[in-house]
From TrEMBL:
One of its GO terms (cellular component) is plasma membrane. PANTHER family: BLUE COPPER PROTEIN, OS07G0570600 PROTEIN. It comes from Canna indica. Residues 23-124 form the Phytocyanin domain. Residues 128-156 are annotated as: Disordered. Residues 1-22 form the signal peptide. This is Mavicyanin-like. GO terms for molecular function: electron transfer activity; metal ion binding. CDD domains: Phytocyanin (cd04216). Keywords: Copper, Glycoprotein, Metal-binding, Signal.
Amino acid sequence: MKTSIFALLVLIIGGGARLSEAAAYKVGDSAGWTILGNPNYTAWAISKNFKVGDTLVFEYSKKFHNVLEVSKADYKACNAASPMVAYTSGNDSITLPRRGHYFFICGVPGHCGAGQKVDIRITKWSSSSPAASPLATTTTGANSGAATNPAAAPRPNGAATAVAPTAILVFAQAAALLYFVAYSGGLTA
């Protein structure tokens, strides 16, 4: 009985903390954000399991590209005329604060039509662990992109892996359970 309660606590604490870690993904992996080599951003996005709090890192030559967050209609039409947010730094980190779709295109004429666009989807039932390896390094200047609409810009994240507030909640729940078990006589020597 004591061993099974201890094992349960370890699973709650260890598993809960893992569930709440955010990851950073370099869009296009080694290719980055470009049209050279015809990267398939649809396949790239499908191969990932994005969750709330994750960060997208767009790396590109700012002389030749940009990143525009657009509506679904503008994404489908490759319309760069009215973006919700425009990023132009060449190294933009964008945190995903909610479930749903995020649509990004390159606003340089012809680039979106050539496939430089990505639909990021966080599903209601997204798994806790990424399908592919996230970046292992710390990003400098999270959300460092020069957003033309600062009010709509995502919140800063600061690092490639950050513990979300839910980890604190899981830890507090586990501590409360441990306290209860210990003082109810379940963990006596």
